[in-house]
Amino acid sequence: LAQVLATVTFGATASLAAANCDPGETVVKLSHVTGGTTHPKVVASNNFAERVNKELNGKMCVEVYPSSTLFGDSKELEALLLGDVQLLAPSLSKFGSYTEKFGVFDLPFIFKDIDAAIRFTQSKEGMGLLNEMEDVGFVGLGYWMSGMKYFSANKPLIEPTDAKGLKFRVQTSDVAKAMIKAMGASPQPMAFSEVYGALQTGVVDGQENTWSNIYTKKFFEVQDSVTETNHQLLAYLFMTSREFLDSLDDDVREQFIAIANDVTLQANLEVKEKEANNRQNILNGGGVINVLNAAQREKWVNAMKPVWKQFEKAIGKDLINAAAGS
Ligand code: LMR
Fold first, then answer.
1. Total Cβ atoms within 10 A of residue 52
2. Where does the record locate the signal sequence feature (predicted)?
């Protein structure tokens, strides 16, 4: 029976994790890139491991590898197809080399809030996207919301023109790159594990992320301030591979999927509270948050508006309309 691994260092992780599974149990590695204890993905991953390790004790054993300790952004999807890891929860913004359709989740200001995003994922169109990459061998088990995103930089960003000429780290998403360019700034795609160092050394001037990532990875400590732009969604695809799922006995597979559904539901119910807590944690830690008034917010919306048109063909108008109307 595996214990959930929350804060172990690399090196110790592999041996400790392996040591906790009983002989005969199918070992399932869940790798992700986030850290800390208060992050929604950390909590959901650990909940999933705990549930499986209790309810499928003797049959299956989940080991959680947080903070890119097993695989980081660049390798994890290939590793899943190779069978080196069985579960991932990457951001929907990291699937550009497999599908353009996920760009819908990245369109700036398409979701008013997390509830609108959840409604979209539960719609016919959203559910359809869950297994958009079936041909590749990926199976979507559920969408885990992370939060809305906020810009931070080494200077206050009150209006989009304040970002002119700055370099922003982005995930590997064409939509995100276009959005940064629309602000007159320059996008620098980079793995999540490298962001703190890049901000600290000035390789980039800013980044965009959720309260939970900005707090748990301490980005606020190496930035002037964070602006409450709410400009984009961050959500994850909790996923496995077809090959792994097919390798399970029917009863185990059924229970595994049922637990995934439960944990997904629970994670999405709790996500807003977790984000609010991490926003407060940033303030308690001395971080500065710039709150926008309606006129300022409108300027951000207008600056990013042209991005939708650029991706209309690649994503599909129907999908965009469904998401925007959620
Ligand atoms: C990022 O790369 O900024 C995020 O996708 C990290 C994460 O998984 O929350």
1. 25
2. 1-17
> Of the residues 146, 232, 237, which should be mutated to test ligand 1's pocket, given the most ligand atoms within 8 Å of the CB?
146
Share of the chain above pLDDT 90, in %: 94
Nearest-angstrom CA–CA distance, 271 and 69? 24
The ligand 1 atom at the shortest distance from the C-alpha of residue 191 is: 2
Residue 272 burial (10 A CB sphere; 0-12, 13-18, 19+): middle
Is a pLDDT exceeding 60 seen at residue 19? no
Mean pLDDT of 212-229: 98
The pocket around ligand 1, CB under 6 angstroms, is made up of 33-34, 91, 146, 171, 192, 209, 213, 234
> Rounded to 5 degrees, what are φ and ψ at 244?
-65, -45
Residue 16 has pLDDT above 70, yes or no: no
